């Protein structure tokens, strides 16, 4: 086997693995019945003229399943944090007591749960597309090695079969993660 074939397959597998990780991270940001830090990951606050991630300028505490206490480290950032939370896609209206913001997440309606399931399915499809793109790039690289006579056709065919097995493994991981997320979302 050529030295290039294993490196092509390894590179494709690394990229596919990253695609699965990104998809799983995006799933954690999709809201379920419980509050979690991941839900607040993508929220940025305008802080001294610069967009700053919420977790860098405020602490988050979860005293109850659907309640979050957001305490800015700098009290001057309070209104910016409040605005960012209100404008986020969480659908919340924080109450400000002067020292911290109390965020009560609304109970998920059946319609909202269905929307989140659709969102999760879209994220999963994006992950699958990314995995398939990695497969396509690796397949082209293998075909080029065969065409340039750096490896034999049998070796190229073997490498492509191995590539298909790796691709299936990562797509199955995305499907499994999607199944778990759907179950989580549909559980009242």
- Secondary-structure class: alpha+beta
Beta-strand content estimate: 5-15%
| Overall domain count | 2
Gross CATH architecture of the largest domain: Orthogonal Bundle
Shape: elongated
- Average pLDDT works out at 89
Terminal-residue CA separation:
54 Å
Helix percent reads 55-70%
CATH topology of the largest domain: Topoisomerase I, Chain A, domain 4
CATH superfamily of the largest domain: Ribosome-recycling factor
Describe this structure in words.
The protein has 188 residues and is α+β, with helices and mostly antiparallel strands. The protein has 2 domains: 4-29 and 109-186, Ribosome-recycling factor (Topoisomerase I, Chain A, domain 4); 37-104, Gyrase A, domain 2 (2-Layer Sandwich). The protein is built from 5 helices and 6 strands. It has helices spanning 4-29, 54-57, 78-87, 110-147, 153-186; strands at 44-47, 50-53, 58-64, 67-72, 95-96, 101-104. The strands form 2 sheets. It has a 4-stranded antiparallel β-sheet with strand order 3-4-6-5. α1 packs antiparallel against α4 (110-147), α1 runs parallel beside α5 (153-186) and α4 runs antiparallel to α5 (153-186). It is elongated, with a radius of gyration of 22 Å. The N and C termini lie far apart (54 Å). The model has no long low-confidence stretch (mean pLDDT 89).
């Amino acid at each position: 086997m050529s030295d290039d074939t294993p490196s092509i397959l390894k590179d494709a597998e690394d990229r596919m693995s990253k695609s699965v990780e990104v998809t799983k991270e995006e799933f954690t940001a999709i809201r379920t019945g419980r509050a979690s830090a991941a839900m607040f990951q993508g929220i940025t606050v305008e802080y001294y003229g610069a967009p700053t991630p919420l977790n860098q300028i405020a602490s988050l505490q979860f005293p109850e399943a659907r309640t979050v206490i957001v305490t800015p480290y700098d009290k001057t950032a309070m209104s910016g944090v409040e605005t960012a939370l209100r404008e986020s896609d969480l659908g919340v209206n924080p109450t400000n007591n002067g020292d911290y913001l109390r965020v009560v997440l609304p109970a998920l309606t059946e319609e909202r749960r269905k929307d989140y399931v659709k969102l999760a399915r879209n994220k999963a499809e994006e992950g699958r597309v990314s995995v398939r793109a990695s497969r396509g790039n690796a397949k082209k690289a293998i075909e080029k090695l065969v065409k340039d006579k750096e490896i034999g056709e049998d070796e190229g065919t073997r490498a492509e079969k191995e590539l298909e097995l790796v691709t299936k493994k990562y797509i199955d991981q995305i499907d499994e993660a999607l199944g778990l997320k759907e179950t989580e979302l549909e559980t009242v």
